[in-house]
Amino acid sequence: MFRTALRTVLAHKARLLMTVLAVMLGVAFVSGTLVFTDTLGNAFNKQSAKSYKDVAVSVSSYASNEKGPDGKKPEPGLSPKTLDEIGAIDKVASVTGRVDGFAGVADPDGKLIGNGWSNTGTNFSPGKDGKDAAYDFTDGSGPTKAGEIALDKSTASRGEYEVGKPVRVSTNGPVKEYTLSGIFTTEDGAVNAGGSLVLFETAVAQKLYLEPGFFQNATVTATPGASDAKILDAVEPLLPEDAEAQTGTQLAAEQADQIERQLSGINQMLLAFAAIALFVGIFLISNTFTMLVAQRTKELALLRAVGASRRQVKRSVMLEALVVGLFASAVGFVLGIGLAVGLRSAMGSFGAKVPAGPLMITPVAVAAAFGVGVVITLIAAWLPARRAAKIPPVAAMSSVHAVATVKSLVLRNSIGAVLTLIGAAGIIAGASAGKDGKLIIGGGAFFSLVGIIVLIPLLSRPVIALVQPLLNRLYGVAGKLAGQNAVRNPRRTGATASALAIGLTLVTGLTVIGVTLGQAIDKMTTDNIKADYMVTMASGGGLDESAVEALEKAPGVSAVSPQRASYLQIKGEDTSVSAVTPGDIQRVLALKTRSGSLDSLSGDAIAMDSDTAKSRGLKTGDTVSVKYQDDKTARLKIGATYEANEFVSPVLISTDLVGPHEAKPYTPEVYVSMDGGMSEANELALVNALGDNPAISVSDQQDIRNMFGGMINTALNIMYGLLGMALIIAVLGVVNTLAMSVFERQQEIGMLRAIGLDRRRVKRMIRLEAVVISVFGAVVGVGLGTFLAWAIGETIRSSIPGYVLVMPWDRIGIFLVLAGLVGVLAALWPARSAARLNMLTAIKTE
Question: Structure pTM?
Answer without folding.
Answer: 0.71
